[in-house]
Structures are given as C-alpha cells and as structure tokens.
Design goal:
- It is built from 5 helices and 6 strands, in the order βαβαββαβαβα.
- With 154 residues, the chain is α/β, with parallel strands linked by helices.
- The protein has one domain: Rossmann fold.
- β2, α2 and β3 form a beta-alpha-beta unit.
- The model has no long low-confidence stretch (mean pLDDT 87).
Length: 154
C-alpha cells in the first residue's frame, strides 16, 4: 500500500494541477495534517487553500477520527468527527453523494493505516503528508507510525 503522492506538508501540494486533472472533492485529515493534534484552530494558510479550492468549484471536507471540539477558526467546511477511518461507512453515510465519481476524490492525511488506507478503500487519489508534530499523540498512533517505519511505508 503506497500513497499516490508523498509531500512534506499540505502547502506543498500542487492543488492547481489536481484541479486541472479533474479532482473536485478533497477530504483532509485534521490532526497532524492540517493542524496540530487536538487543535481547535485551522491555520490561515489552510483556510486559504480551502477557499482557493472552493472558488475553483471543488468541495472540501475535513474527515477526522478526533472527537468533536469547539473550533476557533471559522470555516464553512463540513467536518465529520470520529469518522472511524480507515472504515468508510460513516463517511459514505454522511457525504456519499460527493464520492460517486471516485476519479474526482482526493484524500490527504499523515497516517498510512488510517488516512491512506481509507483513501485506498474509497478508490480515491491519496496524498500522504509528513505529520506536523508527533510529540503528543495516542500510544496507538505512535505504534502505527513505528510499523510504517519498519515496513518503510511512505
């Protein structure tokens, strides 16, 4: 299992190119992908990316396994909390009509065994970013990251 693209951070993704090749639905992980773990803030640079995508006809969602939290950043991007990734049924139940044309869907995340596997199960284009900060994570996440390294999954 390998992502379709590896980049250092979300800001390194060529969204213009993705839009040009027909990608129209963008599913972003939250924790350690667009914000630090358990953050309540979406950085301005990420909000700008969301606005760019939406202004070009794309749909943007945040799909996170994290618990619901009061967000301090104001955005009209829909967030699916406790999404149960890599399982797809909760996301399909909530936004399934946006996932019908899998060739238009992009999944962006920092973990192989949740985000990228989720994207592969959706048959979407997958982009793996390096985690923002791994110093504060669940023990299970740390364990999965160790397995990623052992198997050199990138």
């Amino acid at each position: 299992m390998k992502p379709d693209l590896n980049v250092k951070s979300v800001s390194d993704i060529d969204f213009e190119k993705l839009l040009k090749i027909g990608k129209r639905v963008f599913l972003f992980d939250f924790d350690n992908t667009i914000g630090v773990w358990k953050s309540q803030v979406i950085p301005k640079s990420i909000l700008n990316i969301f606005e760019y995508l939406k202004s070009n006809g794309a749909e943007v969602f945040i799909i996170t396994n994290g618990k619901r939290r009061d967000m301090h950043s104001k955005t009209d991007v829909r967030i699916i909390w406790r999404s149960l990734k890599p399982l797809t049924f909760k996301v399909k139940k909530n936004i399934g009509n946006h996932l019908k044309d899998r060739n238009k869907v992009v999944v962006i995340g920092d973990q192989m065994f949740t985000d990228i596997l989720f994207g592969k199960l959706l048959k979407a284009y997958t982009i793996k970013v390096e985690p923002i900060d791994t110093s504060k994570e669940f023990i299970s996440t740390k364990f999965l990251r160790m397995i990623e390294k052992v198997f050199n999954l990138k």
